[in-house]
Design brief:
- It is a single chain.
- By secondary structure, this protein is mainly β.
- It is built from two helices and 34 strands.
- The strands form nine sheets. A four-stranded antiparallel beta sheet has the order 1-30-29-28, with no helix packed on it. Strands 2-3-4-5 form a four-stranded antiparallel beta sheet, with no helix packed on it.
- Strand 16 and strand 17 (about 235-245) form a beta hairpin.
């Protein structure tokens, strides 16, 4: 027969029971506190952003490497598109030959308020002082009055020298990235009558940005940013060619630094298939110091995930509020803290939903930034409003010193040639003795006496 428990054993059991009870109570309290904290966060989110739901996202990248996934809170209602610019409470989208203007005063409920169609193969847009400048590849540049966003009105169309893929504005000059022909400078002092100024042969230019008398050009296959001094627009001068470790495209200037988005392959000289050296490893962001604006210096290079698909070539960057916002094809959107340009850090990402046809996310084509939100476009699905509170802010003006165009020489003589301005690109010429018959694009048809000096005999205006 077992002996009865002693008083000492009873004290131990009581003490043990008290310890278990206290620890259990403490654990329950911690869980309750966590639940209350989570509820508070949800309430704050609801108050700040209203009753919105997060839209589906794609595969996503490693959160530890590329930051948390930023939620999309609304679709833009604009359909698929190529580019977007935000000014105040309005977002201006271009895609599928149309300009669509959206009221963004409530980002969770974007409202389309204006639209214009018939704008060609729309690619990029820049809005300034109530005027939208739109480049449309083979259709040149369209200039649209958007001072009344509900009633956009076409002011003019400019016949660019080659496919216009990107643009920047500096004062009275539009800088058009025209692929193989480099950058074309266009006088827009009268938006109803844009006129050619000059050309800088930079290589295969995709995108361009202007700052303080210089343009910085993202050059594709040559993997460069080309720096051009345009303080005298009649005589642009290339001052530097910056080597990138990826194909060049999107460029931006912010707070004394140049930002270049890169993509496709790296300089490891790939062949034509995945697995070859450098294949798909050219994606990233490179930052240069503009202490010497004519000769920028590399400060840092940040790489994005490898991307093996080569059927799209669009990489864009916008910088504001000490953050760089980069869209990178199928990789999606990345946000980096660049308060220290020498050591950028990822703070957010967003990929589009899964695309069954390509077995991966849909492609991202363009972006712009507003207060607490990022707008992205896609060439295959609806654009999105991505929430980024405390990170995203309106993009400021970095034009700085402006170029001075001066008077236009329309009939100028040099030691080697005489030139006659047609008001459009010269596409074809037929001569009979000393008379030339010229097809000059938007400048119409001209009959010109060419010798002993130029003399316009007749001009037939045409739509093109």
């Amino acid at each position: 027969m077992k002996a009865p428990c002693s008083s000492i054993d009873l004290k131990v059991l009581v003490r043990l029971g008290l310890i278990i009870r206290n620890r259990l109570a403490n654990t329950i309290f911690q869980y309750l506190r966590l639940a209350v904290a989570s509820l508070v966060v949800l309430l704050v989110w609801a108050v700040s952003f209203g009753e919105t739901k997060q839209l589906p996202i794609g595969l996503g990248h490693d959160v530890d490497l590329y930051g948390p996934v930023l939620p999309a809170i609304a679709q833009t209602g604009t359909g698929s598109g190529m580019s977007v610019d935000v000014k105040g409470d309005y977002a201006y989208f271009v895609g599928e030959g149309a300009l669509t203007i959206v009221d963004l005063s409530d980002p969770a409920e974007p409202e389309t308020i204006g639209k214009m169609e018939g704008l060609g193969t729309t690619r990029q847009i820049h809005v300034r002082e109530g005027i939208a400048y739109i480049v449309s590849r083979g259709d040149g540049m369209f200039i649209v009055d958007v001072s009344d966003p509900r009633r956009p009105a076409l002011l003019s169309r400019y016949d660019s020298i080659e496919f216009a893929t990107g643009l920047a504005i500096g004062g009275d000059v539009a800088f058009l990235a025209c692929r193989l022909y480099g950058v074309e400078l266009v006088d827009i002092s009268d938006p109803r009558k844009p006129t050619h100024i000059s050309v800088s042969r930079t290589g295969v230019s995709q995108s361009v940005t202007y700052s303080d008398g210089f343009v910085y050009v993202g050059v594709w296959g040559e993997m460069m940013v080309v720096v051009v001094d345009v303080r005298d627009p009649w005589n642009p001068v290339i001052t530097e060619k910056l080597r990138l470790d990826g194909y060049g495209d999107g460029v931006a200037v912010y707070d004394g630094h140049l930002y270049a988005a890169t993509g496709q392959h790296s300089r490891a000289k790939p062949d034509d298939k995945p697995g070859d050296p450098g294949f798909g490893t050219g994606h990233g962001l490179e930052i240069f110091s503009l202490l010497d604006a004519a000769h920028p210096r590399l400060v840092s290079r940040t790489k994005f995930p490898q991307e093996d698909h080569t059927d799209s070539h669009l990489w864009a960057v916008r910088v504001t509020n000490n953050h760089a916002f980069v869209v990178d094809n199928y990789n999606g959107l990345f946000v980096l803290d660049v308060s220290d340009p020498a050591a950028p850090t990822f703070v957010g990402q967003h990929q589009l939903p899964y695309n069954d046809e390509r077995e991966g996310p849909h492609v991202v084509t363009g972006l712009s930034v507003a207060k607490d939100h990022i707008l992205i476009t896609s060439g295959s699905i609806e654009g999105r409003v991505v929430s980024a509170p405390g990170i995203a802010a309106a993009i400021g003006d970095n034009e700085g010193r402006l170029p001075s165009v001066g008077p236009r020489p329309t009939d100028r003589e040099t030691d080697g040639y005489r030139a006659y301005y047609m008001g459009g690109q010269v596409y074809n010429l037929a001569c009979e003795k000393d008379v030339g018959y010229v097809a000059a694009g938007q400048g119409g048809l001209h009959v010109v006496k060419v010798s002993p000096k130029f003399e316009r005999l007749r001009h037939y205006p045409t739509k093109d």
